[in-house]
Design goal:
Length: 244
C-alpha cells in the first residue's frame, strides 16, 4: 500500500457548543456521527476543548478506554471515583485508564480564565482491568528541544506516562519560530497542530487546529513559522489488527 497523507482542516471539524464549552472534534463524537470518520489507526478521539470559567464536565462514567489529557492553557481540575484528584496544567501529562469502569469530573479550575486542552482516546490492549491514573510533569526545556514521548505503551520506549496499549505512543513538541523536528516513522501517524503555524515536508503549510493522517509515514520534517505546539500519535496497529 502506498504512503498517504490526508490533511484534515481545522474548519471542517464538527463542533459542540454550549454556554460553557466549545469542543472541536477530529473524529465522530457524541451527537456528531460520520461513519467515514470514526478513527485513525488506534486513535478514536481528539477533542480540542475550551471550557469557560466556572464550567466543566460533571461526574460521568467511562469504561475500557485510555484517556490522555494535555492542557494548552489554564488549569483543569480532575476528580474520580478511584480517589484521584488534582489540577492538570500545561506540561503535566495525565492518563486515566477507565478499565472496568470509573466515574470522573473535569472542571475549569479558574473562575476568571478559560481552560484550553486536548483530550485523546485510544483503546487498551485488555478490557475490564482495574482503573488507574498517572500524571507526570515534563520539563519545558525538554519540550522546547524537540519531540518528547508524552505517553507510550510501546516496549522499550520511555515516556512520561504509560499507556496500556503496546502499539501506541503520543509525542509532543513546543517549537520556537524557525525550529525543525523530524516526526517518527510509523505505519500509522496522526499529527495535530495544537497552536501556531508550521510546514510539514511533502504536505505543506498547516495552522492551529489542522491535522494530517499518515499511513506508512517516514521521518518527515516539521518546521515552525512562529511558536507552535504539535501532538503526534505514533501507531503500529489499527483497530482490529496490525497496521499492514
Amino acid at each position: 500500500m502506498p504512503a498517504t497523507a490526508e490533511i484534515r482542516w481545522a474548519a471542517d471539524r464538527a463542533v459542540t457548543s454550549t454556554t460553557w464549552l466549545k469542543s472541536r472534534h477530529s473524529f465522530s463524537f457524541g451527537d456528531h456521527y460520520d461513519p467515514d470518520n470514526t478513527h485513525h489507526g488506534l486513535l478514536l478521539a481528539n477533542n480540542d476543548d475550551i471550557v469557560a470559567p466556572g464550567g466543566g464536565f460533571d461526574t460521568h462514567p467511562h469504561r475500557d478506554m485510555e484517556i490522555v489529557t494535555w492542557v494548552l492553557r489554564g488549569g483543569l481540575r480532575h476528580q474520580d471515583s478511584a480517589g484521584n484528584r488534582g489540577v492538570i496544567y500545561p506540561g503535566l501529562a495525565q492518563r486515566m485508564s477507565a478499565g472496568s469502569g470509573i466515574l470522573h469530573s473535569e472542571m475549569n479550575d479558574s473562575a476568571t480564565e478559560p481552560v484550553h486542552f486536548v483530550q485523546m482516546w485510544v483503546l487498551p490492549d485488555e478490557t475490564a482491568t482495574t482503573p488507574s491514573y498517572q500524571q507526570q510533569q515534563i520539563d519545558n526545556e525538554l519540550l522546547s528541544d524537540g519531540l518528547v514521548a508524552i505517553a507510550s505503551g510501546i516496549p522499550g520506549q520511555d515516556a512520561a506516562i504509560t499507556l496500556h496499549n503496546r502499539s501506541a505512543a503520543l509525542h509532543g513538541a513546543r517549537l520556537r519560530a524557525g525550529a525543525t523536528v523530524a516526526m517518527p516513522a510509523a505505519p500509522v501517524l496522526h499529527l495535530f497542530v495544537a497552536r501556531g503555524r508550521l510546514t510539514v515536508e511533502g504536505v505543506g503549510d498547516l495552522t492551529e487546529g489542522d491535522a494530517v493522517r499518515f499511513t506508512d509515514a517516514d521521518a518527515r520534517r516539521i518546521t515552525a513559522h512562529d511558536p507552535a505546539e504539535v501532538l503526534i500519535w505514533e501507531m503500529h496497529a489499527k483497530l482490529g489488527g496490525p497496521a499492514t
